[in-house]
Design a protein that fits this description.
This is Sensor histidine kinase. It catalyses: ATP + protein L-histidine = ADP + protein N-phospho-L-histidine. It comes from Brevibacillus ruminantium. The relative contact order is 0.07. The protein has eleven helices and eleven strands. The N and C termini lie far apart (about 90 Å). It has helices at about 1-25, 45-50, 55, 60-65, 130-180, 185-215, 215-220, 225-240, 255-275, 305-310, 315-325; strands spanning about 30, 40, 65-70, 85-95, 100-110, 120-125, 240-245, 280-285, 290-300, 330-335, 340-350. The strands form two sheets. It has a six-stranded antiparallel β-sheet with strand order 2-1-6-5-4-3. A five-stranded mixed β-sheet has the order 7-8-9-11-10. The chain has about 375 residues and is an alpha+beta fold. The chain has three domains: about 25-125, PAS domain (Beta-Lactamase); about 140-215; about 220-364, Heat Shock Protein 90.
């Protein structure tokens, strides 16, 4: 008798535990009968679908909620439905909610043993967050691929302009100089002189284009020399006074890090020079133990950052942030109309991130 009572107590305890699991599990669980009518659901299914237990049980057919299985060929199909099978351990389906929304779920189903009147148990897990995360990872990889391909193409074209077109123009200029030293009539000498001037201007333009695409100093000497060259060009072209300060022991870093920082600073300087009506621009590089921090401050007219981003007019700002995020960094843009703009860039670097074989650069 005592053994029977202990067995009954254990059975009741197991039933209570199973009921608690059914009620509190985060995945949606529903049971349908042999015809597909919903027999019972747990609280998670109520939250997922938007319908109450009373609205679902005995009233809704599984096909009113299920929008079909996902296959390799189709996102939603009823061909070879899971309901026709005894068991499907894993598949995807789309669920329709009470308010008409549709979203994907990971599902599994199994037909209960004989004696359960052909009932089927289904477990559904919301995949919305998972799919969003996968989409973000895919976009992250795609953006990284595009930026790398763009930089490689910029490097190739820059080299070709410098070594190909630039050298050809230089050879033409040398030939014109030799020709100009010969005995030429007045009009002919004037004509040669004009062609020399045009060729010299074309050489300068090709050089400028090659530098804009990708300065060779960035690959050969590193970030700071490339930026110092950029600063000189900006000061000369726009009359902007730029101060560069370097704090900490600066070294050569990996190509992705140096390229990203160069492009971000270049974009910030270009925006300041073209739109900010600024007189001075300050750039501070801090080489910290675990991160590189670049602060760019101007005394310009400022702008509404949120408005620019929401209107889509801040594509340059978006590109700056994208480049930093690809390196698990960040770009914080602070601006007040009439009070200038501050851009703070943070790029994490692991210990030993600096490239081997490069000595510390001179302090700026």
């Amino acid at each position: 008798m005592n053994a029977w009572m202990e067995e009954m107590g254990a059975s009741q305890e197991t039933d209570t535990l199973l009921q608690s699991i059914f009620a509190n599990i985060s995945d949606a669980v529903l049971v349908v009968d042999h015809s597909g009518t919903i027999v019972t659901v747990n609280a998670a299914m109520e939250r997922m679908s938007g319908w109450s237990k009373e609205e679902l049980v005995g009233s809704k057919h599984i096909c009113e909620i299920c929008l079909g299985m996902a296959t390799c060929q189709e996102e939603s199909t009823c061909t070879d439905c899971f309901f026709k099978r005894t068991q499907m351990p894993s598949f995807e389906m789309r669920v329709r909610t009470k308010d008409g929304r549709e979203y994907p779920v990971a599902a599994s189903s199994t037909r209960l043993p004989e004696g359960a009147d052909g009932k089927m148990v289904m477990i559904l897990r919301d995949m919305t967050m998972q799919l969003r995360a996968e989409k973000e990872r895919y976009q992250h990889k795609l953006t990284n691929f595009v930026i790398q391909a763009q930089e490689e193409e910029r490097k190739r074209i820059s080299r070709e302009l410098h070594d190909g077109v630039g050298q050809a123009l230089y050879s033409i200029l040398v030939g014109l100089n030799v020709l100009g030293q010969g005995k030429l009539s007045g009009p002919m000498k004037q004509h040669v002189t004009e062609i020399q001037q045009m060729t010299a201007k074309a050489m300068e333009e090709v050089k400028r284009m090659a530098l804009e695409l990708r300065p060779s100093a960035l690959d050969d000497l590193g970030l700071l020399p490339a930026l110092r060259s950029l600063i000189k060009r900006v000061e000369k072209s726009f009359g902007l006074s730029v101060d560069l300060h370097v704090q900490g022991e600066w070294q050569r870093y990996s190509a992705p890090v140096e390229t990203a920082l160069y492009r971000i600073v270049q974009e910030a300087m270009t925006n300041t020079a073209k739109y900010a009506q600024a007189h001075t621009l300050g750039i501070i590089f801090e080489a910290r133990e675990k991160e590189l921090v670049v602060t760019i401050v101007d005394d310009g007219v400022g702008f509404d950052v949120e408005l620019a981003e929401n209107k889509g007019s801040g594509l340059g700002l978006f590109g700056m942030k994208e480049r930093a995020q690809l390196l698990k960094g960040s770009v914080d843009i602070r601006s007040v109309i009439g009070e200038g703009t501050t851009v703070i860039v943070r790029i994490p670097v692991a210990k030993g991130e600096a490239e081997d074989g490069h000595s510390s650069l001179d302090r700026g």
